[in-house]
Specification:
The complex is a heterotrimer of chains A (500), B (454) and C (132).
Chain A: H1 22-25, H2 64-76, H3 98-104, H4 107-110, H5 122-139, E1 143-145, H6 151-168, E2 176-180, H7 186-193, E3 197-201, H8 211-217, E4 222-228, H9 240-250, E5 253-258, H10 270-273, E6 277-280, E7 300-302, E8 314-318, E9 321-325, H11 341-376, E10 393-396, H12 407-416, E11 423-424, E12 433-436, H13 444-463, H14 465-470, H15 482-487
Parallel strand pairs in A: 2-3, 2-4, 4-5, 5-6
Antiparallel strand pairs in A: 1-7, 6-7, 8-9, 10-12, 11-12
Helix pairs in contact in A: 3-11, 5-11, 6-7, 11-13
Chain B: H1 9-18, H2 32-35, H3 52-63, E1 73-74, H4 87-93, H5 96-99, H6 111-128, E2 132-133, H7 140-155, E3 159-163, H8 168-177, E4 184-188, H9 197-203, E5 208-215, H10 228-234, E6 238-243, E7 261-265, E8 281-285, E9 298-302, E10 308-312, H11 319-322, H12 335-371, E11 378-379, E12 389-393, H13 398-407, E13 410-411, E14 414-415, H14 417-420, E15 427-431, H15 438-453
Parallel strand pairs in B: 1-13, 3-4, 3-5, 5-6, 6-7
Antiparallel strand pairs in B: 2-8, 7-8, 9-10, 11-12, 12-15, 14-15
Helix pairs in contact in B: 4-12, 6-12, 7-8, 12-15
Chain C: E1 5-7, E2 12-17, E3 19-27, H1 29-35, E4 40-42, E5 49-50, E6 55-60, E7 65-69, E8 74-79, H2 82-85, H3 88-92, E9 101-105, H4 117-125
Classes of the chains: A alpha/beta (500), B alpha/beta (454), C alpha+beta (132).
Chain lengths: 500, 454, 132
C-alpha cells in the first residue's frame, strides 16, 4: 500500500492487532515448562510458617506455546539492526555478527561459575587478559579494566580513579570536573555521583570547546576535564592538542568519553593524544548487540600512573598462569565478579576476526559512510559544522518551526519510510537536532535510499506539514500520549493484581 | 577474515568521487592536525584477522580450559546459582528484533520491547511484593547501591546501616559507590545468623538514612525482620531488603516485611552462570518513591487513536535530561536480560517457580543433613532457617577440601577464608539447587566422608 | 508591597497573601507555555530555608526539567499540594490555582529589585528570555 492511499481516518486500520499482556492471557491452572524440583506441598512442616510467603505470587499461567507466540509477536512489533537501517546518532548501531552469538554460547564460558577459583578459570582469564592487552594497544593505554557494565559505569569508574589519584597525592582541593555543554548527559551525572561539582564549558560558534573559556574555567580546583572525541557534533576539535596541553599545565587529568571511538579506532590512540583515562562502549565500537538497551560493557583504559587505582579484582599473569588479585590501592569493586564476560567475549571475537587492518578499515568506512550521507543530504536541512565530518553529523530542523514542526515530527515520518529514526533533541546545543550515524556496515544502496526518502520527507514537511503531524501511520501504534503516561504513571499491569 | 563492510570497490570509488576525494586515506584530513603529531598505531598485535572456524576454535579451546557446570557438579552459590533454564528462553531472547534493537526511544517502532519491559516490571514488582519496579540495573550489587542512594537523597541523611548478612562483595560495591558522597556506612552484626532486633533498635536514630537487610543472607540464613519496618519508619529512615528472587516463590517477600525498597540479583531467574556477567540488577519500591527511582521505566498509556500502548516515561528523572541533577548516571542497562528473566518466569509460571524453589530447599536440606552425619562436620547457626545455602564447620582447611572435590569433578561449597578472613578458613558455604540429583548429593557426601577419614 | 504581583527575569512571580511577609510564588503564563504540559512538580519541604535565587522547586515536562528559583530569600511555609496530584493546574491557571509555594521572606527590601508588570513585559519583548 502506498503512502498516498493511506492516512486520514482509515490510518488505524493498517495497524496490526495488539498483543495482550501475559496477565491478560493468563488462564488459571495452565502449565508451561515442568522444571526439576518437588511439589511445594512436600515441604509442609519443614518450611516454617513465619517465614513463608502469604501473598499471591501473581505470575501469569500459560502454556509453553502461549509463551512462545507471545514473545514472537512482541518481536514483530520491534525494530532492530537485523530488520531496519538504524541511523541513531551516537549509538553506533552497526551489524552484530552472528558468529559472536555462538562464541557467547560456548559452555566453557556460559556455564562457568564466577567463584570457581583461578584453577578452573584459566581459559576465561586468558581470554580477558588478551582483550585487556588488545584494548590497551588500540587505546594507547598501559592498563585496562573490563569491569564496567556500560559506558556510564566506565565514566563513574574513571572519575573515582581520578578522585583516588589526587587523594594519593594529598591534593584534596580538586573538587571540580569540567564538561562541555555538548556532552552526553551521563558525563555530568557520573561526575555528580563521584562527588564532584560540574562546571559546564560552553561551545564556541563552531560547536567546539571555546579555548578562552577553557582557560578561564581551569584552576587548581579542576580534577578532570571530560571530552568526547570526536564531539557529539561529529567534529574532531581542531584545537584538541592545544586543549590537552592547557589541561596538563593546570595539573588536572584528561578523560576521554570514547562513545565515538568508531570514528578513529586503529587510526589514532587516545593515549597518544594525551588522555589519561578513556572508556569505550563495546556495544558501539566493538559490535556487541545493544540488546534493547543493554547489556553493554564499558572498558576503561588508563595511563600507568593511574593503574594502581583500577577497580578490583585485577587479572594478573605470571608466566602462563593467571590469577585474580585485589590491590590495596584499588578503588574497590564497582560491580559483582569480573565483568560482563559474555559481552566481552563477543568484543574480543570481533577484534580477532577483523585483525589490525580490518579495524582500521572500520574507521575509514565509518568516515566514508557518514560523509557520503552528509553530502547526499546537503540542501535538505542545515548542518552544524562545515567540511568533512567524522562518523556522524547533526542537522537542525529549526527552520521547520515556521511550519509548526519539530525534529521529533520528522522522526515519525522517517519511521513510516521504513527506518529507525536518527537521534533527536541531542546534542542540546543544536535546536531541533537530528543526529545521523550510518556506521560502516550499511551499504551505499541503503544510504542512497535513505537519502532519497529523507529529502522527500523534508520536502513534504515544507509543502504539507499537516501530513507529517499525522505520522507515523504504518507502525503498530500511533503517537503515544506521553503527557498522560508521565502525569499518572501506570508502571505495572493492573491485570496482575487480580491473580492469586 | 571479515570486516562486515558491504561496499564493492566500485561503490567505494563512486562514494569517494561524490566527496571529491580519490582514496579512503583522503578522509583522514579530518584528523590531519593530530595525526601529524603521532606515528600511526602499531596494530600487529591484533593479528591479520580470522575466519569463523578459526575464531570458534580459538575460543572453544580456551573454554575447554575452564571447569563449567557442564563438566563439574555445582554445589556452590554465593551470589551465582546453577538453576534449570528451559530451552525456550534462549530461543526467544536471541531473536534479532530484540537482540539488535536499542533503548526504545521511538515508541511506535519499539512496542514489543516496551511491552516486555512493562511486563518485566510487573513480574518483579509482584514477586517482591512492591508497587513498582524499574527496567533493570547492572547487577544485584549496583542495584543495592542505587537503592541506598535513593534513601540518602530522600532523607538527606548521612548514615547508612548495612546488615552483616549482605554479601561482602556487594557491601564493597556499595562502599565504592558512596566513595564520593559524605555518607558513613556502619555494619549491623548478625547474631546466630540473623539480624537481632535489639541491636538495630539500639542504633537507629535521626541520623540514619536507611537499613539494608539481606534475605537469605550471604551465609544462607533466612533473615527475619519483625518490627523492623515500624522501628525505621519511627525515626524517618527507610527500610531496604536485598532478596534472592528465586527464594521469593516460597519465602516472605520484602513487601510483606514492610520494606520501602527492594533490590536483588536477577541471575537466578533464567540467566546462565555466565562467568559472572552480564547479570541483572533488580530494583523495586513503594509507589511514593516513583520519582526517585533511577533507571528506565516503561508505562502504559494510549496512542492518539485510543489504542493502549507503552512508552518510556518519567524520563525527566534521567541523566539525558537532568544531567548532574539526575537520580543516577545509568543509561544502558540490562534490558535483554530482563527479557530473559521475564521469559523464564512466564515459562515456569507460579507453579513451576514454586516447584523449582521447593526443590532447591529440599536438596539443600538433604545435603546439609547428610554432611552432618560425617564426624567432625557441623552446621553453623543451626537455629537459623536456611533456603538453599548453609555453612559447614569442617575439621580441615576448606580450600584443601575444595581442591580435592574439584579434582573429583565437584565444585564444592565455597571456602570462606579468602573472603571473610583466617578465622573462617575451616568453613564452607554450600549450595544445592533443584538441579542437583540425589545421586550427586550422595556421591559428594561420600567423597567428603572418605577425604576426612584419610 | 500591597497586593501587587512582581516578577523575575527567570519567569517566576511573587505576591503577598495578606501578611506582608508571607509571599506566594508561581511561574508566569509565558513560562508555562514554554514548558508545555507540566507532568510533575517537585515542591520543597516545609521549613526549608532558601536564599534568594536558589533552586526551590523543579517543574517537569515530558522531555525536560526546569529549575524554579526563589524570587526572594526566606523559609518555605506552604506548598500547593493540589498540583502534586493535578500538575495540569500549573498550565491552566498559573497565577491562581497553579501557584507553587509560599515563603516567609527574610528581607522585605529585596522586593524593590524585582520586575513590575511593565518591567517584565519589557523583558519578554526584549527577546533575551531564556533563563529557565
Amino acid at each position: 500500500m502506498s503512502l498516498e492511499l493511506s492516512g486520514g481516518e482509515e490510518s488505524g486500520s493498517m495497524r496490526p492487532p495488539m498483543e495482550p499482556t501475559l496477565w491478560q492471557k493468563s488462564r488459571p491452572g495452565a502449565r508451561g515448562v515442568f522444571p526439576p524440583g518437588i511439589s511445594p506441598e512436600a515441604l509442609d512442616g519443614r518450611c516454617p510458617e513465619q517465614i513463608r510467603r502469604k501473598s499471591p505470587l501473581a505470575l501469569p499461567e500459560l502454556s509453553e506455546l502461549d509463551v512462545v507466540r507471545h514473545f514472537t509477536r512482541l518481536s514483530h512489533l520491534n525494530r532492530g539492526v537485523d530488520t531496519h537501517f538504524y541511523p541513531l546518532g551516537s549509538c553506533t548501531m552497526k551489524y552484530n555478527p552472528k558468529i559472536m552469538d555462538r562464541i557467547s554460547e560456548i559452555t566453557g564460558f556460559r556455564d562457568l561459575h564466577p567463584r570457581t577459583g583461578p584453577e578452573g578459570m584459566q581459559g576465561l582469564l586468558e581470554v580477558l587478559h588478551t582483550l585487556e592487552e588488545s584494548l590497551g594497544h588500540l587505546l594507547g593505554m598501559e592498563a585496562v579494566t573490563l569491569a564496567p557494565a556500560a559506558g556510564a559505569h566506565g565514566e563513574l569508574t574513571g572519575i573515582l580513579i581520578a578522585r583516588r589519584y589526587f587523594e594519593s597525592k594529598g591534593d584534596r582541593g580538586r573538587t571540580e570536573i569540567l564538561i562541555p555543554d555538548s556532552a552526553h548527559g551521563t558525563n555530568p551525572a557520573s561526575a555528580a555521583m563521584g562527588g564532584f561539582t560540574v562546571r559546564v564549558l560552553p561551545s564556541g560558534s563552531d560547536g567546539g570547546v571555546d579555548l578562552g573559556h577553557l582557560a578561564e574555567t581551569l584552576s587548581e580546583k579542576t580534577a578532570l576535564v571530560m571530552m568526547t572525541v570526536p564531539s557529539t557534533l561529529g567534529i574532531f576539535e581542531k584545537d584538541l592538542l592545544k586543549m590537552v596541553a592547557m589541561v596538563k599545565d593546570s595539573g588536572a587529568l584528561l578523560y576521554m568519553d570514547g562513545a565515538n571511538f568508531n570514528a578513529f579506532i586503529g587510526l589514532l590512540r587516545p593515549g597518544d593524544l594525551g588522555f589519561d583515562i578513556v572508556h569505550i562502549n563495546t556495544h558501539k565500537t566493538l559490535a556487541t548487540p545493544h540488546g534493547g538497551g543493554g547489556p553493554g560493557s564499558g572498558p576503561v583504559g588508563v595511563k600507568a600512573h593511574l593503574a594502581p587505582f583500577l577497580p578490583s579484582p585485577r587479572i594478573r599473569k605470571e608466566g602462563e598462569r593467571y590469577s585474580l588479585v585485589s590491590p590495596e590501592t584499588s578503588i574497590g569493586p564497582i560491580r559483582s565478579f569480573i565483568g560482563s564476560t559474555l559481552v566481552l567475549l563477543r568484543a574480543l571475537g570481533y577484534l580477532r576476526m577483523l585483525g589490525g587492518e580490518g579495524v582500521r578499515r572500520v574507521a575509514l568506512y565509518a568516515l566514508l559512510n557518514a560523509n557520503y550521507l552528509r553530502a547526499r543530504l546537503s540542501g535538505t536541512l542545515p548542518r552544524t559544522g562545515s567540511g568533512l565530518c567524522a562518523h556522524e553529523f547533526v542537522l537542525s530542523a529549526k527552520e521547520l518551526g515556521a511550519e509548526g514542526l519539530h525534529a521529533s515530527d520528522l522522526a515519525k515520518e522517517i519511521l513510516d519510510a521504513g527506518y529507525y529514526a536518527p537521534t533527536i533533541s541531542f546534542p542540546l546545543i543544536v535546536p531541533e537536532a537530528l543526529m545521523i550515524e550510518p556506521t560502516e556496515t550499511e551499504s551505499k544502496e541503503t544510504l542512497d535510499r535513505f537519502a532519497e526518502d529523507f529529502r522527500r520527507i523534508v520536502d513534504l514537511a515544507r509543502s504539507n506539514p499537516s501530513r507529517i503531524k499525522e505520522a507515523p501511520r504504518r507502525t503498530p501504534v500511533a503517537r503515544p500520549d506521553e503527557v498522560a503516561a508521565a502525569r499518572d504513571p501506570v508502571l505495572t499491569d493492573p491485570a496482575s493484581l487480580h491473580l492469586s | 577474515m571479515a570486516d562486515f563492510i558491504p561496499h564493492t570497490e566500485t561503490e567505494t570509488r563512486e562514494m569517494l568521487s561524490l566527496l571529491g576525494l580519490d582514496t579512503l586515506e583522503d578522509l583522514l584530513s579530518v584528523y590531519s592536525h593530530s595525526m601529524a603529531a603521532f606515528s600511526p598505531p602499531d596494530l600487529s598485535s591484533l593479528g591479520g584477522g580470522q575466519d569463523e572456524r578459526t575464531l570458534m576454535e580459538w575460543f572453544s579451546s580456551r573454554g575447554d580450559r575452564n571447569l563449567p557446570a557442564s563438566r563439574v557438579v555445582v554445589f556452590r552459590g554465593a551470589g551465582a546459582y546453577d538453576h534449570f533454564i528451559p530451552a525456550g528462553v534462549s530461543a526467544l531472547v536471541g531473536r534479532g528484533e530484540f537482540l539488535t534493537s536499542y533503548t526504545p526511544y521511538q515508541p511506535e517502532a519499539s512496542q514489543g520491547l516496551l511491552q516486555a519491559i512493562f511486563e518485566f516490571q510487573t513480574a518483579i514488582a509482584r514477586l517482591y511484593g512492591m508497587d513498582l519496579a524499574n527496567a533493570s540495573l547492572y547487577d544485584g550489587a549496583t542495584a543495592m547501591a542505587e537503592a541506598v542512594l535513593v534513601a540518602v537523597r530522600e532523607t538527606e541523611r548521612s548514615v547508612v546501616l548495612l546488615s552483616e548478612g549482605i554479601d561482602p562483595e556487594c557491601r564493597s560495591v556499595v562502599e565504592t559507590y558512596l566513595e564520593g558522597m559524605s555518607v558513613r556506612v556502619e555494619i549491623v552484626p548478625l547474631e546466630g545468623g540473623t539480624t537481632p532486633y535489639s541491636r538495630l533498635a539500639g542504633r537507629v536514630g535521626p541520623d540514619v538514612a536507611c537499613f539494608v537487610g539481606s534475605t537469605p543472607t550471604f551465609l544462607g540464613a533466612v533473615d527475619q525482620f519483625d518490627g523492623v519496618s515500624d522501628l525505621l519508619h519511627g525515626v524517618g529512615a527507610l527500610f531496604i531488603i536485598h532478596a534472592n528472587p528465586h527464594s521469593l516463590a516460597l519465602l516472605k517477600s520484602p513487601g510483606e516485611w514492610g520494606a520501602d525498597l527492594a533490590s536483588g540479583e536477577g541471575q537466578p531467574l533464567g540467566l546462565p552462570l555466565s562467568s559472572g556477567g552480564p547479570y541483572l540488577g533488580l530494583l523495586s519500591s513503594r509507589k511514593k518513591f516513583v520519582r526517585r527511582i533511577p533507571g528506565r521505566l516503561a508505562g502504559l498509556t494510549k496512542d492518539r487513536e485510543g489504542r493502549p500502548c507503552f512508552v518510556l516515561t518519567l524520563q525527566a528523572r534521567e541523566q539525558h535530561i537532568r544531567r548532574e541533577k539526575a537520580n543516577s548516571n545509568i543509561c544502558s542497562n540490562e534490558t535483554l536480560l530482563a527479557l530473559q528473566a521475564l521469559v523464564y518466569l512466564s515459562l515456569l509460571g507460579p507453579g513451576g517457580l514454586r516447584r523449582a524453589a521447593s526443590g532447591s530447599w529440599s536438596n539443600a536440606h538433604d545435603l546439609c543433613a547428610r554432611l552432618q552425619t560425617i564426624p567432625g562436620i557441623s552446621l553453623i547457626n543451626p537455629e537459623a532457617d536456611f533456603f538453599h545455602e548453609f555453612v559447614s564447620e569442617l575439621p580441615v582447611d576448606a580450600d584443601d577440601l575444595s581442591r580435592h572435590l574439584l579434582a573429583e569433578g565437584i565444585l564444592g561449597g565455597l571456602p570462606l577464608g579468602g573472603l571473610l578472613g583466617p578465622s573462617w578458613s575451616r568453613r564452607m558455604l554450600w549450595c544445592a539447587t533443584e538441579l542437583r540429583t540425589e545421586a550427586e548429593i550422595a556421591r559428594t557426601v561420600e567423597i567428603v566422608r572418605l577425604y576426612l577419614e584419610k | 508591597m500591597s497586593s501587587e504581583r512582581r516578577y523575575t527575569p527567570t519567569h517566576e512571580w511573587i505576591q503577598s497573601v495578606g501578611d506582608p511577609f508571607r509571599m506566594r510564588v508561581g511561574i508566569t503564563d509565558f513560562a508555562q507555555k514554554e514548558i508545555t504540559d507540566v507532568v510533575f512538580v517537585e515542591l520543597p519541604k516545609i521549613g526549608k530555608k532558601v536564599p534568594r535565587g536558589a533552586e526551590a522547586a523543579i517543574i517537569e515536562s515530558v522531555k525536560a526539567a526546569f529549575s524554579i528559583y526563589a524570587p526572594m530569600g526566606g523559609e518555605i511555609v506552604g506548598i500547593n499540594s493540589a498540583i502534586e496530584s493535578n500538575p495540569a493546574l500549573v498550565n491552566a491557571d498559573p497565577y491562581g490555582a497553579g501557584w507553587l509555594f509560599e515563603l516567609k521572606v527574610d528581607n522585605a527590601s529585596e522586593w524593590s529589585s524585582l520586575l513590575d508588570e511593565n518591567g517584565y513585559r519589557a523583558h519578554l519583548s526584549s527577546g533575551s528570555v531564556g533563563g529557565h
